[in-house]
Every structure is written in C-alpha cells, then in structure tokens.
Amino acid sequence: MITVKRSTLRRLSVLVGLLFVAGIYYTMHFRMGWDWSSPGLGRLPREVVQAYLTEAYDEGKGAEAVRDFVAPGVARDATPPQERVDGPAVARHVRATLAQGLRVVVFQSVAPARGQPGADVIDVFEVRDGRIVHRERYETSFGR
Amino acid sequence: MLKSGQSADSDQVTVKFDAETAWRTIMALMRLFLGAWMIVSGYSYWAPHFGLPPGFPQPLGTLPASNQMLVTMIDIGLFNFVKTCEIIGGLCLVFGAFVPLATLLLLPISAIVFYNAIFLNLRTERLFNFTYMGVMCLYMNIIIALAYIRYYAPMLSFRSSPTTLHELRRLPSLFDAKENGRHEA
User: Fold this and answer.
1) Looking at the DSSP assignment, which residues form a beta bridge with residue A4?
2) How is A63-89 classified by DSSP, letter by letter?
3) Which residues from chain B sit within 8 angstroms of residue A12, using beta carbons?
4) Do B58 and A42 touch (CB under 8 A)?
5) Longest Cα pair distance anywhere in chain A, in angstroms?
6) Residue B88 clears pLDDT 80, i.e. is over it
7) Which segments of chain A are extended strands (E)?
8) Do A99 and A45 meet the contact criterion of CB atoms below 8 Å apart?
9) How far is CA B155 from CA B70, B158, B177, in A?
10) What is the pLDDT of residue A102?
11) Residue A5: its chain B contacts at CB < 8 A?
12) B41: distance to nearest CA of chain A, Å?
C-alpha cells in the first residue's frame, strides 16, 4: 500500500498517454513500410489522377509524372507514348471526371502532340497507395 | 488512476495492491491507449492539410465496398467531422477530461471502423487479433464504456420526463471534481 498525491497520479496518467501517442506515431510512421517518396500517398485517387495528368500534359513533364504517380511495372505497358516523355505542354480538354472508390474515369479530348494524333479518349485509372496501378485508354468520338 | 482509498478533504490517495487497483490500472491503460490511437489517427488525416507529416497515410480500404465508403466519406467532407471528433475524444481520454462523454463520442466511430474492417474488407480472420486496431478500437471502447457505466445509468432510465431549461444552471458544476465523484486520476 502506498500513498501518493492525486495530482501526481493525474500527471503520470497523462505522461503515459503521451508516451502511447509517441509510440503509436513512431510505429505507424516508420515501421509500416509506407512509400513516403510517392507524392500521391494519402491523397484521393481523383487527386492523384489529376496531379498526374496535369504534370504529364499541362506541364509537359511526362517522365517525372510517370516516376511520381505510376507504379513500377505499369508505366511502360499502360501509359500512352506522349505521356511518358517530356516536351511542350499538350493541350487537352477534360469533359468529365468520374470517381468511385479507387477507380477514376476521365473523359478528355487531347490535341495532336509529340508525334501522336489528337483524339477523344476515355481514360480509366485505378489508384492504390498514391500510385496508378492500372490504366486503360479507349479512343472514341465525342461528336463535336 | 490507481486509487483504492481516498480522503475527501486531502489531495492524497492510498493505493492498495489488490484486484481493484489492477482493474483500475488496466482500464486506465486501455483508456490512454485508445485515446492515443485516436489522436494519431485524427492527426494523420489533418496533418497533410497543414503541410505536416502524417503518422500514416489515410487508408482507403482494400476491397471495393470499403474503397467506396472511405473515398466517399472523404470526398463529401464527412471525414473532416469524424477525424475532428477522433482528436477531441482522444485528447479527452488522454487528459482524463469528460471521459464518459468522450467514450460515447468515439463509440460510433469505433463501430464504423469495425464495420469497415470486418464487413467491408472481410478481415474476419482478424476478428480476435488483439493487435489489429480495426477491431480493437471497438472492443476497447465498449470495455471502457462498461467501466464508466455508472455515468450512463441515469441516461438509461425506462421512464423519463422533460424538464425546463433551468437545468442549464447545473452546467458549471460539470467542472466541479467533488460533484462528479473525483474518480479520474
């Protein structure tokens, strides 16, 4: 049996709580193997796709966009050639963006650029852990 | 936290090494751990909004139904509310303030975390995995609520009647430690 001050117990309790906070933060941040180099980590799939398309088309930094936002192994097979390389900005008009869960669908018209003809396309993306892990492109005509 | 005996007039408490002290210690540790988890979880959601590093990236689920629920909740802004409640409730649990209220506040959040883990992500094999916070949040929350049941008992009255707004005069007494039993360390 021991006698202690109530305020001491209260302080001890808070201290233990703060130690738990620090321990949980440390474990979750450093021990779980997150790819913190991915700028899309923790962002919504729609935001990741928008950031990728902006970097690749609007800023003309295709190689960097692929490095930042496309999962290794997906880039070469799934991304159109004009997206993968750096060059002048590519004009495009986004008609609609639909997102459900991890899937994002972009309806856009892309102007001719970097040796590729212009086209109306439907781009389908799947995003996991801040990176595009699946990509399909369907050419179509929006009937201007 | 460890109080077994107390004097109403002094700041001293006598701690006996018995089953009651063990129970109170376990409840206190559980309360502190759940609070700490909620703080880190809530902080991790809000941190990137302020350019700070999160504890962990906001999970968006593994299976489609979970993806859909979580992304939609974030998209429509409901997560702003949820994560703010997590931080407020977590701070209350860690600092031992308004613990019964904070436990109730966090209960629906823990229930949704459980629903997401078990019913949407189908992680039934982890139903009794005590290191998996997807289920442990709810278990701890319920146990803590049971430990504070005497504060909820009046709310569970079978028969009740409305009173007047004069009862609001009692609000300042919420901060009176003696009035509320001085059971928190």
Assistant:
1) B13
2) HHHHHHHB-TTTHHHHS-HHHHSB-S-
3) 1, 185
4) yes
5) 85
6) yes
7) 2-5, 92-100, 103-110, 119-128, 131-140
8) yes
9) 32, 9, 20
10) 94
11) 11-13
12) 9
Is B71–A4 a contact, with Cβ atoms under 8 angstroms apart?
no
Q: Side chain identity at A8, as an amino acid letter?
A: T
- Cβ–Cβ contacts within 10 Å for residue B94, how many? 25
pTM of the model: 0.88
Q: How far is CA B90 from the centre of its chain?
A: 6
| Pairwise CA distance, residues B168 & A31, whole Å | 49
B29 and chain A in contact, CB less than 8 A: yes
**Furthest-apart CA pair in chain B: how many Å?**
59
**AA identity, residue B117:** A
User: Which pLDDT tens digit goes with each residue over A17-35?
Assistant: 999 999 999 999 999 989 8
Asked if B48 has any chain A CB less than 8 Å from its own CB, the reply is yes
Q: Any CB–CB contact under 8 A between B54 and chain A?
A: yes
Amino acid at A9: L
Contacts of A14 in chain B (CB under 8 A): 94-96
Query: B36: which 2 tokens?
Result: 């700490």
Residue B1 confidence (pLDDT) above 50: no
Q: Residue A33 has what DSSP assignment?
A: -
